[in-house]
Amino acid sequence: MAKLGLGFETVNCILCGRQTKTAVVWPDEGGHIVRCCDCDLMFRNPRRREEDIILHFEKEWTEDQTDFSLGDYRTPNLKKIVDWILQRYPVPGRVLDVGCSYGTLLSLFPETWQCFGVEPSKTAFSKAQQRLPQATIFNAALVDADLPEKTFDIITMLDTIYYLSHPLRDLGRFPDLLKPGGVALIEAPNFGNRSKVYRWLGKAFPESWMYFYTPTSLEKILMKSGLKVVGRLDLPGHRTGSSNFAERIITRAEFALLTSLKTMSGGYIDLVPHFVLMAKG
User: Fold this and answer.
1) Cβ-contact 28, 34 below 8 angstroms
2) What does the alpha-carbon distance between residue 98 and residue 156 come to, in Å, rounded to a whole number?
3) What is the pTM of this model?
């Protein structure tokens, strides 16, 4: 991410609501990744200011990807999420995808559904509009999007929540946006439980990543935002849809192994790559 000049800020633990003792999990020039010693939430501190991050997504994120393929490598995981929704909500409704990118998730819903999206990148917003002319897409960050309240049966936030500088504020909008009985699905990488593996692999994380979740810490965030978790869906790594055959096989084999390990340990060993929490207001 380019240095846009607005500088860094220091933050407190948002779960504890105060300055707490932290331990460095991952030293990083873009702001260390730290763990709160009181509640175990992991976050970047110090970090880039929110204005910097929003500007990054508005101006830089997709604008350099002129040859980006709409055959998204995440599509197999997105199909699993849509299948979960349609099995439980067979009657057509309204779905809002926060951070909808090029509209891949929305394109998987039947035409009988009314689709809405929020996307700060101008390029991604434009392509999503062209791809889904029947959908309503807002070119804005969630904090600035003028969304109708008590409108949506389903709200999805996939591959997005770790970029949010103020997740409590943004997720706090969901109870007002959902219809009674509506459900929100929030996806995140299982970073906290897999951090030692990522360190061993030398995986780099851009400084636009603000928070690093586990299923437990994300559930605490959702509860503090006024949402109650009612379910969970585990997913393999995004490379499950890679064009490289070997990558697909390795990704799926890893997921099968880690899912079995989680089951046999009664959930104690939880190293699945990605998870989705379902929550109601």
Assistant:
1) no
2) 6
3) 0.91
